[in-house]
Write the structure tokens for this entry.
Amino acid sequence: MLLSYPAHFVKDFSTCTFAAFKNMKYHDEIQRRRTFAIISHPDAGKTTLTEKFLLFGGAIQVAGAVKSNKIKKHATSDFMEIERQRGISVATSVMSFEYNGILINLLDTPGHKDFAEDTYRTLTAVDSVILVVDSVNGVEDQTRRLMEVCRMRDTPVIVFINKMDRDGKNRFDLLEEIEKELSISLHPLTWPINSGKDFKGVYNLHDKNIRLFTANTKGDEDTIAIKDLNDSVLDNHLGERDAAQLREDVELVDGVHGELDVTEYLAGKVAPVFFGSAINNFGVKEMLDTFIRIAPTPRSRQTSERELNVEEDKMSGFVFKIHANLDPKHRDRIAFFRVCSGKFERNKYFHHVRLDKDVRFSNPYSFMARDKSIIEDAYAGDVVGLFDTGNFKIGDTLTEGENFFFTGIPSFSPEIFKEVVNKDPMKTKQLEKGLLQLTDEGVAQLFTQFGGNKKIIGCVGELQFEVIQYRLLHEYGASVVFNSLPFYKACWLTSKDDKKLEDFLRFKQANSGEDKDGHPVYLAQSEWFLNTEKTNNPDIEFHFTSEIHK
Ligand code: G4P
């Protein structure tokens, strides 16, 4: 076995006293869970790969059952389409399935870049990610940004280089590009033999065998055992030229990488790489098998007060996503709650820290592929759907009485800012309610400008403004239009000197305001303005995320 395993893969029963028995149960539940997300640039193959995973897990029976939740470009003005897509993306938001005794929670992320903020938040709820890179297009913009978020949290990453059946970039160049662009060290565990029409399969650098490429495999067949790379079996199957090329490639790769140190992967420093073709179900099973062996089990987490050990028996967790109007006939919202420790139980009272009140849930949902079912309990790593009548916002924490918040669930600065103009003064109250609820869901961020008291909505993409306008009208009866504003970033402000901060906010009224929770923000018109203000105000700190206030 070449992979070196960290200590937590070895179960130690020697310390199991009777008192620890309850925790032991949690320990076992935790050990069998893997909670992760697949991330990619749209069209790289995330949906296809997800579907293959679900097929292996037996959660779906036929290909084509999972619909891509990407909102295609032409849909930007087609609201029915947006609604339909939203419905689909809820249904496929969390997919739980078992594979070889391991319970896998796969959290879906929206493909469309305008919903990137939603993806960032989902990444706070997972323990690892699989990054899909298109072998033809390489690293694309959105991949870069998603990986930045992973790096902020040291999230372990496995890379799947997809579409090897197409003529892609040179594999060495591609690896170099990914390493450079995403600032992560790569460690190939399989190596491709050609690509495109000449794609012959992959050499498994770890198991030292060859898998010949055939379209739409079930995952197991066509593995060729070889004694070593000099085995003539290789020449028989690949032809002399390709066998020689493979030997050369492998010598190079082995020379650079050696064996994979799993602790480095778990620390988010090294990403194992697999090559394959999701549509052909090629290379997928190998990755899944390795994934369940090395991917992290639910981890301990930092809170505002202390580090929370994942094996603690008291339940705790946080809301990372809120979805409204699953069923258009009802106004319910569904809050996605990630359990971080202990056991979540149906009908048990838990402490809602922000509201300082006890709440219980009679119909908590779990997600099994596209079906939802009521659950009795859930453990660390699980995601539970909670019906919400307006009690939750992103980041809310439930505990068994202790007061703390989970850290690392920031809001990022929006990139497009628009003033909200109320077209129907009779509906002011409805508008305010709608804005508050939609921003609680994390659809957008709301700021109030100090000079002029303007309500400003900040989003990552244009499409979100259309969604907000549509939802305000259809769900709250409020009619609005948006006026574009020339801001490029919102920075949250802190200072040890209250007076200096107060003065700054007063002098810069047109460019300052507060977020929904009353925290001061500076709305920068350009990078130049921002840098100038930073230089002129050394006592004030400018932050690109709201994390500082958690
Ligand atoms: P996404 O969720 O990341 O946006 O990507 P998705 O899986 O929807 O895949 C995007 C396109 O790439 C799809 O084609 C899909 O069939 C194709 N694809 C996925 N994996 C592979 C692969 O290994 N090789 C090749 N050649 N193509 C692959 P489409 O034409 O956009 O959609 P569809 O009509 O096939 O559904």
Residues 40, 42-48, 68, 70, 111, 162-163, 165-166, 277-280 surround guanosine-5',3'-tetraphosphate (CB under 6 Å).
